[in-house]
Each structure stands twice: as C-alpha cells, then as structure tokens.
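[Meeting: bench + compute handoff]

Bench side (C.D.) handed over the final construct sequence. Compute side (W.E.) agreed to return the predicted structure before the next meeting so the bench team could plan truncations. Sequence as handed over:
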Amino acid sequence: MKLKALVNRFTPILLVLFTLSGCSALGKSTPTPLPTVVLGGNQVSTQVSPQGIGAGVTASGVIVPSQEAQLAFASGGNVQLLNVAVGDRVEAGQVLALLAGSEQLQASLSGAELEVLTAQQALQKLSDDLPEAQVAALQALNDARDALHDAQRRIDGFGVPSEPIDIQVARSSVALAKHALDQAKKDFKPYENKPENDFKRATLLNKLSDAQNQYDEAVKQLNRLTGVTVPEFDIEQAQTELEIAQARLKLAEDKYELLKSGPDLEALELAQARLKNAQDQADAVRASLANLELKAPFTGTVSKVNIHSEEWVMPGQTILTLADLEALRVETTDLSERDVPKLEIGQIATVFIKALNQDVTGRVGEISPLADTLGGDVVYKTTIDLDTRPPGLRAGMSVEVQFGTDQ
C-alpha cells in the first residue's frame, strides 16, 4: 500500500518533466558549445575549438615532419656497420649503414683509376709529340719528292743525247768503279775458302758486293749516255720505281696535311676511346661502392631502425626511417571533395592543436592533385605550413584546421 501511494504521489512530477523534454526537442533549439577551461596561474580562460566556428572550411589533421624518408640499399648484402640508433640526429650525406665488400671494390677502383691515368697520359703524349711528328712528316715528304724526281730523271734519260762532258764523267766513273772492284776481288781472294762465319771474310765479301754494284751502275749510266740500247728490264724497273715513288709521295703528302691540323686522327680516336672506356669502368666501380653506403638524404632524426649489424638485407628492404623533426607541418586527413575547391595555395588557416589546447596560424602550402578515400568519402590531403612552432609541439599530434574565408 505504501509503494502504491508513493507512485501516485510522484507520477504528476514525472509527467511534467517528460512534457518539458518533449517541448525542447520539438523546438529544435541549437545547443551552445561548451567552453574549454584552461587553468594557468591565477587566471581562468576559455577557448573554443575551431569546430565551434560556423564560417569557413574545417578539417581534421595531424602534425607531420616536413620531410620523411624510408631508406634502403640498392643492392643486397651483409650489414657490416650500423652507425645510428633511434633518436640520433644526423647530417645530410652522413653514412648511416655500410654493407660488406668495400675492400675488393676499392682494389678494383685503384686499378681502374690507374688505367684512366695511363690513358690520359697517352692522349696527352699525342699532343706533346705533335711538333716532332710534324717535322718527321715534312722530312718524309721531302724524301719522297726527291725519290720521285730521281725516278723520273732516270726514265727521261733513256734515249736522250748526252753532252760530251757527261760521257767523259761516266767513263771516269766506270774506270774508278772497275779499279775498286779489282781491288776488292784481290783483297777477298786470300779469304775465299775461309769459313762463312769468319769475320774478316764476311767484311771483305760485303766490300766486294758493294764494289760490284757500283761498277754495274756506272756501266749502265755510261751505256745510256753513249746511246747503247737500254735493256727492257732496266726500263721496266725504272717505271716500277717511278710508280712506287709517286705512291709514297701521295702518302707522305696526306700524312703531313693531317698532322698540320693536329695529331693523327686514328691515333687520337683510339686514345680517346681508351680513356672513355677507362673512365666508364672507374665510374661503374664507384657506383658499386656507393651502393654499399646508406647515406642521409637530408638533415634529420632517425625515427625507426629495422635491422642490426651482421644482418643480411635484400635490395629495396627498408633499413631505417629518417624524419626532419625540426620543421613540422600539418596534413589534413578528412578534407572533403566538396570543400577542396574553396581552398588555394597561400590561404590563411587556423590550426587548433588538441594536445596543447592552442591555436596557431599558418598558410596552405600544398593541395594534393589526387584524392584518397576515407570511410567511403573522397578526401584530398592538404598541407599547412605553420607560422610559428609552439613549445611542446611533436609529430603525430592531432589538430583541427579552420581555413579562412578571406583570401
């Protein structure tokens, strides 16, 4: 009976409360956003998140490094040395890890560099020797001209009447040559039966041969001058000598013309090809050596290490992650495709950093040209460069971004 009395007593009050609640819902009143209370010293202040601002475009985001890279070796191998740990700050170009095998490549590089030096010296020698080669070519050209002149004069002399003085000189030459030949025969006679390897015999035999040739030539010259019929063989031989002299003169002229403007073209091309091949070999070895070193592409902090020393790694396997934590920026995570047309590079934005309960201004730095999907919605990643970096700001902190409407 008491329970029933209590229910009857409080029923009107409950009905009144339910009625008031229903009236509020039907009126669709907008709730007032609750202020955030910030305690600092003896003051109490309130700050409203950008979500509470009705105008402009808003999006969620996260604090990220301005640069981040996952580093890997271009070739596989055994990790000989690991120079860094998580949290280490490194400079651009610093060697972070090293694969084994550098000793053999260094030896190959020394050999390749020696070949480059040798090829460079050979190429330089062509230039250094050019004056001497030009003089030699000119001398060869003059000799070829003299030989051609002599050959032509010999042919021209066949059947041409001679001057008496020339005949007298020719007869004197025959007489002198005959005397020298007789003396050579006399000198050789005592040694005629000596062994062939006898030095004295060989010397006298050579003198006898030279004397015989000189006598024969003197007789031929006299015969030509005195109108004695010239043997057909002599005419053919003289014609052959003339053709050879003409060919040699042409070669000498061509070579001299080439050397006038620089080193021999074929020798130069060969030396240049040798040098290029040596340089290519050295560059290839240097590239192989460089592939053994993992260097920092920029100054930053090692945020993750995935290997240990003496561990075998594959080409392209992520070894460590490097991030520039000195320069932080904001990346949006849910900027809708409906809102991205309202933004432009350089547009002002207000960034609310949740962990610090603080607003920081910035400007739109990049707007991705390609979309991502988030829970079925199309979104575009946008980056905001902060005007200032508040104390305590760290990569990974979540933010809310309010993009300004005045551009």
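W.E. noted at the follow-up: The CA atoms of residues 170 and 221 lie 7 Å apart. C.D. will use this when planning the next construct.
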